[in-house]
């Protein structure tokens, strides 16, 4: 999936991730920012995204970055309220977090994040 992200995004892109960021940097050769997990840092994160987009930096988010660890949809709700997400594509992915005996496989998605007009 990380290589796929590199193929589907511009070299100057920033990818919002959960904990898969280092893989995207290493295998996909893209910069990343980790999504916030607390309400205290969400406004600061939103301001950071606005600055990047004002500078013309392409911003993307993985489906894990959008949805994982998001109780009550606080982060995804904020993101969807302020930004438009456009589906870019999906690719097969393996999640090895739980060790070799419990592997999660499925499709991870990537979306382009743009200011809502």
Topology:
Layout lengths: L1 H7 L5 E4 L3 H8 L2 E4 L4 H16 L4 E4 H5 L6 H9 E13 L8 E12 L2
Parallel strand pairs: 1-2, 1-3
Antiparallel strand pairs: 3-5, 4-5
Summarize the structure.
The chain is α/β, with parallel strands linked by helices and 117 residues long. It contains five helices and five strands; from the N terminus they run αβαβαβααββ.
Walk me through what this model shows.
It contains five helices and five strands, in the order αβαβαβααββ. It is an alpha/beta fold and 117 residues long. It has a five-stranded mixed sheet, sandwiched between helices. Helix 2 links the parallel strand 1 (14-17) and strand 2 (31-34). The chain is globular. The mean pLDDT is 91.
Using DSSP, what is the number of strands? 5
| Cα separation of the termini | 30 Å
Could you spell the SSE succession in H and E letters?
HEHEHEHHEE
Q: Provide the spatial order of strands within the biggest beta sheet.
A: 2-1-3-5-4
- Shape descriptor: globular
**What is the strand content?**
25-35%
Average pLDDT taken over every residue: 91
Over all CA atoms, what is the radius of gyration?
14 Å
**Number of distinct helices:** 5
The largest pleated sheet is described as:
5 strands, mixed
What brief labels describe this structure?
117 residues; alpha/beta; 5 helices; 5 strands; globular
């Amino acid at each position: 999936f990380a290589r796929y992200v590199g193929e589907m995004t511009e070299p100057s892109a920033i990818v919002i991730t959960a904990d898969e960021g280092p893989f995207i940097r290493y295998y996909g050769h893209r910069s990343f920012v980790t999504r916030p997990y607390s309400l205290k840092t969400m406004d600061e994160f939103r301001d950071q995204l606005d600055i990047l987009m004002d500078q013309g930096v392409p911003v993307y988010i993985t489906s894990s970055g959008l949805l994982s660890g998001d109780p009550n949809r606080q982060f995804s709700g904020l993101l969807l309220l302020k930004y438009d997400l456009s589906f870019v594509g999906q690719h097969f992915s393996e999640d090895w977090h739980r060790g070799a005996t419990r592997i999660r496989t499925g499709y991870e998605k990537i979306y382009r994040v743009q200011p809502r007009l």
